[in-house]
Q: What sequence folds into this?
């Protein structure tokens, strides 16, 4: 006879092959990541997690929910992360990875946490394998993204060109107005 208790959930053990596949996938994510952010997500609904995954996908960020023990194994298999401090990897966590932007994983999680306070940034890892605390990851989230920085630099570089073009355009208009005034006089 099976007795089911209300509110009690059981987790099926995953097979060894499935664990190896997850470790392999996580190893690849860590190997290719320029930045990783880690957050607690307890008491966030499945629908909200789907919204987070959608927002992350649009920003080029991959979200994974994997047992911390398997993450430690995956990190241990990478020379860069082998000696990283993983003491913050405790509890129900999700991992956000980006292969092309160091800031975006932290930014995506931080933005989501503004409307979902149950999501809490707890740690992060740089692409060089350096562990970051929650304060570091939150500070990182406030930085502009790589694309924003590039756009700002391009705008700064083009600013003198625009100024010269506008000045020449103004002088040309004045010259043409003068010629037109002479012609009609």
A:
């Amino acid at each position: 006879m099976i007795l089911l208790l209300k509110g009690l959930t059981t987790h099926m053990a995953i097979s060894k092959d499935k664990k190896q596949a997850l470790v392999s996938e996580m190893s690849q994510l860590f190997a290719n990541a320029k930045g990783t952010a880690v957050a607690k997500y307890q008491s966030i609904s499945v629908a909200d997690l789907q919204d987070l995954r959608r927002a992350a996908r649009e920003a080029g960020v991959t979200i994974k929910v994997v047992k911390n023990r398997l993450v430690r194994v995956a990190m241990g298999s990478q020379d860069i992360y082998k000696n990283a401090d993983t003491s913050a990897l405790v509890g129900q966590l999700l991992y956000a990875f980006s292969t092309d932007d160091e800031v975006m994983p932290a930014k995506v999680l931080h933005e989501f946490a503004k409307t979902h306070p149950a999501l809490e940034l707890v740690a992060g890892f740089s692409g060089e394998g350096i562990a970051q605390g929650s304060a570091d990851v939150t500070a990182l989230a406030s930085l502009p993204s790589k694309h924003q920085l590039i756009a700002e630099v391009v705008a700064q570089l083009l600013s003198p060109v625009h100024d010269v073009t506008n000045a020449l355009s103004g002088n040309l208009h004045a010259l043409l107005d003068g010629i037109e005034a002479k012609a009609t006089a």
Summary: Confidence is low (pLDDT under 50) at residues 1-10.
